[in-house]
């Protein structure tokens, strides 16, 4: 165990950014698709608990907690039933299928990963929702949809992978109809200066999760306002979702298989796959120390 853990603490290159970011994100999710689905099920995102609850104490099961996060964002953003929705960073379609099923929406999902898009379309067909939820391998900033195409733009845990966040908010504003809603759930970083140890923790998380940087919840609100959105509401859900990185819930195997096993996995899938195994302890420490935060944002495109 120790050699693998120590290797994660050695100096490493800065997180990928620029023109290499999208291919890196695509590669990461292509090679980890089965790992996430086998361990996390249909929802590849955090769970949500009431104050005082935890997976260990109350036995909240994974699907209930992750499904609740979807419902909490629907409520926070007041997503109307029957909406036409663009799901940015749709993953394997868990939230989109909830929106298309129980919420009666029509959803177009986009992801950088061809394997995720294919799996999401397969799941939609199996659920009898193929006519209401379709998934594509596309860059969220260049989908080709005309202005005012959607009632809701939904982005659950995808903004962290976008280097140009002002462009995201501007594109969301363009794509939404007047009166349309932007619904965001995202990892974030504590507002204000970080000390060197905190900076190093953030750097390691960014590196292993293939992300360019983090914005604070306050920065997300500012970006939405600058893009022209109004009726902005931001909620800090850090304490509600932090249990997602409890070892019993995250189910990410510990780095106890030895360096030889890790090397074999890296040879088979590429070194990026190792970020999957490092994620749990890093994210838990981030939430425990308050360096990593999590929040929801609702914003409305004003009517003329």
Automatic annotation (TrEMBL):
<keyword id="KW-0949">S-adenosyl-L-methionine</keyword>
<feature type="domain" description="Methyltransferase type 11">
    <location>
        <begin position="86"/>
        <end position="183"/>
    </location>
</feature>
<feature type="region of interest" description="SAM motif II">
    <location>
        <begin position="148"/>
        <end position="156"/>
    </location>
</feature>
<dbReference type="InterPro" id="IPR025774">
    <property type="entry name" value="PiNMT-like"/>
</dbReference>
<comment type="similarity">
    <text>Belongs to the class I-like SAM-binding methyltransferase superfamily. gTMT family.</text>
</comment>
<keyword id="KW-0808">Transferase</keyword>
<keyword id="KW-0489">Methyltransferase</keyword>
<dbReference type="InterPro" id="IPR013216">
    <property type="entry name" value="Methyltransf_11"/>
</dbReference>
<protein>
    <submittedName>
        <fullName>Tocopherol O-methyltransferase</fullName>
    </submittedName>
</protein>
<dbReference type="GO" id="GO:0032259">
    <property type="term" value="P:methylation"/>
</dbReference>
<dbReference type="Pfam" id="PF08241">
    <property type="entry name" value="Methyltransf_11"/>
</dbReference>
<dbReference type="InterPro" id="IPR029063">
    <property type="entry name" value="SAM-dependent_MTases_sf"/>
</dbReference>
<feature type="region of interest" description="SAM motif III">
    <location>
        <begin position="175"/>
        <end position="184"/>
    </location>
</feature>
<dbReference type="InterPro" id="IPR050447">
    <property type="entry name" value="Erg6_SMT_methyltransf"/>
</dbReference>
<dbReference type="GO" id="GO:0008757">
    <property type="term" value="F:S-adenosylmethionine-dependent methyltransferase activity"/>
</dbReference>
<feature type="region of interest" description="SAM motif I">
    <location>
        <begin position="85"/>
        <end position="94"/>
    </location>
</feature>
